[in-house]
Amino acid sequence: MNVPLLDLKAQYAAIKTEVDAAIAEVLQTQHFILGPKVEQCEKAVAAYSQCAYGIGVSSGSDALLACLMAENIGPGDEVITTPYTFFATAGAIARLGAVPVFVDIDRATYNLDASRIASKVTSRTRAIMPVHLYGQMADMDAVMGVAAEHGLVVIEDAAQAIGAEYKGRRAGSIGHYGCFSFFPSKNLGAAGDGGMIVTNDSARADKLRCLRGHGSKPKYFHKMIGGNFRLDAIQAAVVSAKLPYLDGWTATRQRNAQRYGQLFGKANLPVALPTIATDRHIFNQYVIRVAGRDELQSYLKNKGVGTEVYYPVPMHLQECFSYLEHRQGAFPESEGAANETLALPVYPEVTDAQAEYVVECIREFIARRANPSSADRKVPAVAGVQ
Ligand SMILES: *Cc1c(COP(=O)(O)O)cnc(C)c1O
Fold this sequence. Notes:
The protein is an alpha/beta fold. It has two domains: about 10-245, Aspartate Aminotransferase, domain 2; about 245-375, Aspartate Aminotransferase, domain 1. It is built from ten helices and eleven strands. It has helices at about 10-30, 35-50, 60-70, 85-95, 140-150, 200-210, 235-265, 295-300, 330-340, 350-370; strands spanning about 55, 80, 100, 125-130, 155, 165, 170, 175-180, 195-200, 285-290, 340-345. It has a seven-stranded mixed beta sheet with strand order 1-9-8-5-4-2-3, with helices on both faces. A hairpin with a 2-residue loop joins strand 6 (about 165) and strand 7. The longest helix is centred in the middle third of the chain and has 35 residues, at about 235-265. The structure holds pyridoxal-5'-phosphate. Pyridoxal-5'-phosphate binds near residues 59, 61, 159, 181 and 193.
């Protein structure tokens, strides 16, 4: 049986008519950059995220970068974040010449351990960038508490968490900024790169709109140095066409996660399952923790099951950040997660039979490790001969 990690063709087949029509409409108008389609998408995503303003941008990475730029963060500044994330979070900070200051993660949720933030705050700290990893929000009460105490800005990296909730509040709506990615593999994916910033602050929204167009307002009069961070109309049209389906897809991802829970429970395997610590985990990824992760991944690959390691090298050990002079062992929870976790297929179209097959393959792998069959065992040719 074949179970890919993600099957976007299945999703497209189900909504082809709407997506094709949305793209065709943009082609008809030939209005490709910003414009009414982008504004419509901004309103819809902001409302979905319980925010007043949405600013469409070129990617989730540029969303993070633009927020830091809007706060004039640069050389001499420090930004607190997690080392266990996609590169873009720490990358945005470093690109502006600021220092990413890492705080280790919570073992159960893989999100930044908020109880460790306060000890990393210095006179140079300007912002905190929590990441809502795998679709579950970080402990935002604690993050906002530290931020308020020290006057810090909070930029939520919600690239994996659109629609996730913490105490009834949506991802992106609690901090000063929320950043989404419409990279195709995210829960709400475009037909290429795209992203959005949401905020409840009108002055910040205005500044971001200016920054995304090279800081000009009006055209050719540059108030500040921005970049080309614009969202294009085709991406906005695709996102708008898909948004009405998002809650249904999320419900199916949650059901898939629950089904894995039941299957793993029945099989009674030494596998740590995701911990649900918030109201609404949207399962951008379903990540298990298991001994022998690399061997399991190749075993599953041979069985036709697609998996992924998010992320094999935490940020503090990346070559490009060697100048920060972090050693192996500096952030043990992040390093442990990097070594032991594996994402299983959880996309909405995974069938019962596919999920059962995935768990059965994992059961097989673990049974073989515990008790290799004589066929698998390396037995010397003369062993046991009397
Ligand atoms: C995907 C992702 C990003 C970057 O989004 P792009 O749209 O690919 O630039 C940033 N942070 C996290 C946590 C992500 O998963």
